[in-house]
Design a protein that fits this description.
By secondary structure, the chain is α/β, with parallel strands linked by helices. Helix content is about 30%, strand content about 20%. Strand 1, helix 1 and strand 2 form a beta-alpha-beta unit. This is Muramoyltetrapeptide carboxypeptidase LdcA involved in peptidoglycan recycling. Belongs to the peptidase S66 family. InterPro entries: Carboxypeptidase_A_C_sf (IPR027461), Class_I_gatase-like (IPR029062), LdcA_N (IPR027478), Peptidase_S66_N (IPR040449), Peptidase_S66C (IPR040921), S66_fam (IPR003507).
Length: about 350
Amino acid sequence: MIEPAYPAKPSPGDRVAIVSPAAGLPELYPLPYELGLRRLTEDFGLVPVEYPTTRKMGTSPQERAADLHAAFADPEIKAVIASIGGSDQITVIPHLDAELIRANPKPFFGYSDNTNLLDFLWRQGIVGFHGGGVMTQYGRPGAMDPMSESSIRAALFTSGPYELTEPARITEVNRDWADPATFDAEPATEPATGWSWHRADRVVEGRSWGGCLDIVAWLMMADRIAPPETYEGCVLFLETSEELMSADEVYFTLRCMGERGLLRRFPALLMGRAMAWSFQKPLGPAERERHRAEQRAAVLRALAEYAPDTMAVFDVDLGHTEPQQIVPYGGVVRVDGPARRVTVHY
């Protein structure tokens, strides 16, 4: 296994690739996409470059792989940013030219279905960045969330330590991207409940691996992950998507990681605050809290059975959360239990 290395960062004025390796959803929802591009240009000083499949639904895995090859191979492109996630990026990975991408390492930003590509980059020795989607974080109605923006700026432009912090308020209920009125104001927020710690009696520092648990399950089923010993001493980070995995599904997936001899390799786990609302499952406040509590219990059950010494931090704002803080995929993460601090290295 190649030790992941951080690729060079872009600077304001640089060209960055905007790609849709999971799904061309900008075609269906142009409002958050165009807003995200505008903020990348006006607020971040970058020059977005689109590719043939960026805003086109129904493209083939080979076509999306070709866009990634073009983005990584172009010396004028200094970073690659996903427009959004999707559901079939796993079919793109076999078409990627690993040698080409290893020879042209660049920061890649994305999450959700982009866990597939982040894991691929990890296996090529390239640190990626879990988070920072064009339509979701840059294209947030009204304004970017300040905590999300701060983390994205640090991950995009700087190197070194960055402390993840607990937000005062969070957003759980979204509005229709097809309605222009959605973008007239920021989404409603509600008080955050904070993080909770399990076995916080030590300090763990290691390379990170994980991502969206829905996709990690697929990676195991497709036999895309490395041998379990590869992850020894790494910091695991996981989160769940708008599919709202049930507590049973969470437990069963972690159980499979345990049976594979994988779960116990991680001395620390960062568990993202569970997404608990979607348009398909518009849960009320009490139901949302119940959903999160049941997921936490499922994780603790799996840890008790397969990784009893692993330290865990629950409800961290990463992945499908708002605000969202960037986690370097393959980068260094320090989890300080006694001090109740989590520091990532961008």
